[in-house]
Amino acid sequence: MSEFIWPVRVYYEDTDSGGVVYYANYLKFMERARTEWLRELGFEQDELLVRYGIIFAVHRVELEYHRPARFNDALQVSARILHKGRASLTFQQEVRRLGDPRPLCSGQVQIACVDLQKLRPRPIPKSILEEIPDAE
Fold first, then answer.
1. 16 is catalytic
2. Structural domain containing residue 83
3. How far apart are CA 109 and CA 106, in angstroms?
4. Is residue 119 part of a domain?
5. Residue 135 lies in a domain
6. N or C: which end of the chain has fewer CB within 10 A?
7. Is 136 part of any domain?
8. What pLDDT sits at residue 107?
9. Which of 45, 114, 107 is nearest to 80 (CA)?
10. pTM over 0.90
């Protein structure tokens, strides 16, 4: 799985009074794509918490906004691994309008594996890391 794609529909609640997607909601769309990517690999986040005592938390984000999405647009949100570290993953993500190859928003998101009890980074469990594809 080199690039994971998740469909998203823009709802009224995602927009400002002009019907344009509020800038912070692109982060929510990207979060959904990463969650579904993890689910596709066979991992549910609530089960990771119970079984391993870990969560994946956003450590760093760098985004560029290219053009607006609007109310009722059908979007595709992509996620692909740029870097697989011992305790973190860096994703390249894009939000595109369905049928249009030009990104509306693009960026890199680094997530860290965090021990929930200590609230400190920890290595990604080996059984999980083995299922995560290497960066291209």
1. yes
2. 4-129
3. 10
4. yes
5. no
6. C
7. no
8. 98
9. 107
10. yes
Q: Over range 58-67, report the average pLDDT.
A: 98
Q: Is 119 exposed, middle or buried (0-12, 13-18, 19+ CB in 10 A)?
A: exposed
User: What pLDDT is recorded for position 23?
Assistant: 96
The total of other beta-carbon atoms located within 10 Å of residue 118's CB is 9
Per annotation, catalytic residue among 16, 46, 73, 100: 16
Tally the domains of the chain: 1
Whether residue 96 is contained in a domain is answered as: yes
CATH code, 86: 3.10.129.10
CB-CB contact of 135 with 91 (8 Å)? no
Helix/strand/coil (H/E/C) assignment for every residue in the chain: CCCEEEEEECCHHHECCCCEECCCHHHHHHHHHHHHHHHHCCCCHHHHHHHHCEEEEEEEEEEEECCCCECCCEEEEEEEEEEECCCEEEEEEEEEECCCCCEEEEEEEEEEEEECCCCEECCCCHHHHCCCCCCC
**51: number of Cβ within 10 Å:** 13
pLDDT at 133 over 90: no
